[in-house]
Structure formats: structure tokens, C-alpha cells
Amino acid sequence: AVASEGGIDDAKRRGDAFARAFSAHLARLMEEPAAYGKLGLANLLELREECLREFQFHDAYRSIKQRENEASLAVLPDLLLELDHMDEGTRLLTLIEGVLAANIFDWGSRACVDLYHKGTIIEIYRMSRNKMQRPWRANDFDIFKERMLGSEGKKPKPHKRALLFVDNSGADVVLGMLPLARELLRRGTEVVLVANSLPALNDVTAMELPDIVAEAAKHCDILRRAAEAGGLLVDAMTNTLDGLKGNSSSVPLMVVENGCGSPCIDLRQVSSELAAAAKNADLVILEGMGRALHTNFNARFKCEALKLAMVKNQRLAEKLIKGNIYDCVCRYESAPAS
To answer: pTM here?
Structure first.
């Protein structure tokens, strides 16, 4: 946090004050675990972010996010070109592998932070992609593939609207989730990128996403047309969500804030924009350890849901999926029968 503001004396003073305040919270909880009511990991993560904001550290990972976004956007055109030369089945598997591989870029995981000191963002992404060996720990890809592409010559209807809950900045969103969003757009599905309202760790925010999409759209007509159709202005979302522009030749790509400032998400407490966007959604994609595993792994939705994450915490791997660190989760759930 201090480094994000250049290490100036005022930042050091506030950093020391934050350290004392947050340490005092943790010390009290060690002695009296029920002091703040019933707590889970998501609450502790949110407590940390609130403490940082209390001492005027509004985005401690700002410079890191900018650097990783630029590095990822530089190689995005080559990735899209590679994807466009694949058949549908191969491309869909490569896209899901890409989301899982790119989810390794998580500054909330000590194991992953250690990796960053050993290579560049692109080297780490390629290493992660090369290790995407199936079967994954939760391995519903084939079911999802059949829903997307059909079988025995029968083509299924594309989804009407997909909510994509994105996670980290850099390779995670640029090389993982944006290409997946592009594939859904190509199939005629409206796509809503759902991101944090406030910064937390290196998670991408709804305010940052339009600029990232704008840069990506310079290299892709599909993204450009969809971004134009969707507006990509957070304050205009309520106007565009309930109906497409009559003269638009593309389904829209939109951005909505989730009302949250934590690496996790409680879907009982979301923004009014997200609630409006969810009304017509028939596919939810939750990506990342915080949103797909910590807080919603066992959540059941009224529409189809896909949960994607790389497990980067040994304790979570053992308790939740009975696996190991860097195991992958691809969990697909069909819509319940009406």
C-alpha cells in the first residue's frame, strides 16, 4: 500500500497506522473469535479492504494492475488469431483452459506471488497453459461442451444473456475471460461483465474494465461492435440492459458493477445494476477462487451456471475439493427443471 503511493512520508505514516489498526482487529479475534459476530474468510478479506480505505489507501495494487494489463493486451491479438484458426470444439476447450490458466495471476495467493518473482507475466501464463492437463479436479467440461455445441448434429439455442463475474486484472481478464466473452458474443449471446465496485487486491474494477475492453477492441471487430452496442459506460447500464438499440448489428457487451469491494461476493447483497442485468440472464459464469469457490461453490442458481477456478490455497484444496494446490475446477450446473 505504501509503495503504491511512492513510499512518501505521509504514505508511510498511514501505512503504519493501518498496520496497527488491522493487527489490533486480528489480535482481538484471536482472543475472542465471536467478537464481530459470525465470520468467514470473505468477512476477513472485506475487513482488510475497509481498513485500507479507512487510512486512505484506495487502490494499493493500481500500478501492478496497469502494468499487467498492458503486458497482457500486447499479446492478446496473437491469442485471438490462434483461436480463430481452431474448429469450434477445440476452440471451446482452449478457451476454458485459458480461463483456468490465467486465473493463476492472483496477488491474494502467497504461492502465486512467489511465482511472479521467477518470470514475466507471459512466461507464467504459458507455463500455466502447458500444465492444463485433464481430467481436472471438478471436470464438467464435456457436459458444458454438449450444451454449447450440441451433439448428433443437433444445434442448441445460444444463451440469451450471460453474466460473467470476472476476477483479477492482467492476464486473468484479458487473456482468460475476454476471449470467452468474445466466443459467447460470436454465438449471439449478450454478455455482461460483472466486476467489483471498489478495488480489492488486484481484482479488476468496473471502472477499469471499459478502458481494457476499448484497448482489446482495437484488435477485434467482434469486441468492437459489441462494445459499441453495449455502450460500456457504467452509469448508462440501466438504459441499455432492458433493450438493444434498434439499429445495432451486434449483441451488446456491457459492464456492470457488483456493489462489492472484496475478493469474494455475497450474491444476497449486490448493486441495483447487477440485479437489473440478472433478470433476463440464462447463464452465470463465476470465475476465480473467491467468487466461484470460497463463497459460491455450493450455490444453486435458477439458470445454468459454470464455475471456473484454479485452486491456489492448500487448505482450501484439501477442505473443499479434496485435492491439491493448482488443481482446476470446471463445474457446470444445468438450469433446474421448472
So the answer is: 0.85
- Residue recorded with cell 448428433: 152
Question: What does the pLDDT look like over 189-228, one tens digit per residue?
Answer: 999 999 999 999 899 999 999 999 999 999 899 999 999 9
**Of residues 137 and 186, more confidently modeled:** 186
CA of residue 280 relative to chain centroid, distance:
21
Instruction: Report pLDDT digits (tens) over 41-85.
Output: 778 888 998 999 999 998 998 888 998 899 889 989 999 999 999
Rounded distance between C-alpha atoms, residue 191 and residue 178, angstroms? 10
If DSSP codes are grouped into helix, strand and coil, which group holds residue 80? Answer: helix
> Is the CB of residue 89 less than 8 Å from the CB of residue 183?
no
Q: Which of 168, 178, 158 is nearest to 107 (CA)?
A: 168
85: cell is 484458426
What residues contact residue 299 under an 8 Å CB cut-off, 6+ apart? 267, 305
Contact yes or no for 122/71 (Cβ under 8 A): yes
d(CA 61, CA 2): 10
Cell, residue 94:
482452449
- CA–CA dist 25, 49 (Å, integer): 13
* Alpha carbon separation from 291 to 102, 156, 190, 231, 233 (Å, rounded): 15, 28, 21, 26, 24
How open is the CA angle 34-40-46, to the nearest 5 degrees?
A: 105
Spatial CA neighbour of 79 closest among 187, 171, 188: 171
The pLDDT tens digits of the residues spanning 156-178 come to: 999 999 999 999 999 899 999 99
Separation of alpha carbons 292 and 190, rounded Å: 21
